[in-house]
Design goal:
five-stranded parallel beta sheet, globular, single chain, alpha+beta, eleven-stranded antiparallel beta sheet
Amino acid sequence: LFSATMATRRVLEEAMRRGIARLFSRRVTAALLPSSQVLPPSCGGAAAAAAGGGCWRPPMLCASFSAGTTTEPVDGYDSSPSCPPGSKIKGARLEWSDKVKMKLRRRASFRWERPPRKVLFVKKIGDAEVSAKSREMASWLLDKGLDVYIEPEAKATQEFPSECKQWRPQDTSVDIDFGVVAGGDGTLLHFADLLGENEYYRSSGNDLRPLPPCVSFGMGSLGFMTNFKAERYKEILGQVVEACEGKEVYTTLRTRLSCMVKTREGTVKPIYSCLNECVIDKGQSPGLGKMDLLVDGQPVTTVQGDGLIISTPSGSTGYNLAVGGAMVAPSVPCMLLTPIAPSTLSFRPVIIPESSKIEVSIPSTARTDGRAIFDGHKMEVLKHGESVIVETSKFPLPVIHAAPHDHDWFDSIIEKLHWNVRIQQKPLPER
């Protein structure tokens, strides 16, 4: 199909290697190809959709002709075709800060296409201060005319106003517009787990239902991912609720992992979603753990030690950091592989592309069974011959923050982890 001369191909390949293939735009493609073979609009081309119906791309240039950047909403979703369906916010228009076309662009700002109506409120359990402030926030939201939904456990405590409605993850009739989290990082992980790969977000029948954005108020111990102060809730929530014609709201679509356990018979257990990490370790056994690691179907290495952490950028400052892994900004498109107490000095942490498919299995030669732990609160025992398959989820979690890009993340690692904090060196004395 690609009828360009070999000389033209070499020019295009060289341009792609230099990172300037974007200069060869639709006009170049139209000049090289018959009109019936020009790229369809969904691939950034100039032909009508009738040109084959599929997403045709020259084999050597498939990375060059990236999708367009339109932000017109379709059926309530931002329709930018360069991202998977989960990288959306229902009823809102996203304006991307990431100009490079990635599998999941992350840094953005948004404005509602219509005023939000339904709010899911999740709070830390068993804390009187959090309960009092949560009741105050929920009352404020109700006064603004929003429907506030809470978990059955919170409803039973009667700590929220009676007007708040009960919500379960299996309730597909309620379309949540955004979430409010009051607590620490664990509460945010719980919120993300509630909105995991479950019936609610698959109820549309074609996996197009994205996760709602959430605004989190730090009322826990560390609160690395909960950036807002509860005392400023009126100002913060006001900006979120009124983000139609008012000030834009900054958000990062945080990567999540989709994890499934495969048995020896080849059957797959329920899918788990992780915002932080999936840990595969030796469980309760005192002996040396052993597991095989495959990336994109190819054997990479045999892990011998206490285990392996597969982390998202969000989880890089948690368990991953504690065992020597790197800190990675939440907008970086990657996954981290970090060993836990390896039996070799040369087994160092690595960072791999987000598009990778990871499989960790317990070989028949292992002396112990294994265990998979998802975000620290769900667990599956791995018998010999069983494995965990981990991929980047198509449903990232939009987390609202105060500043554009990764500024909030840098503030957090400096303020809460004291990253590179030291007494400044004095200047040399004047001569």
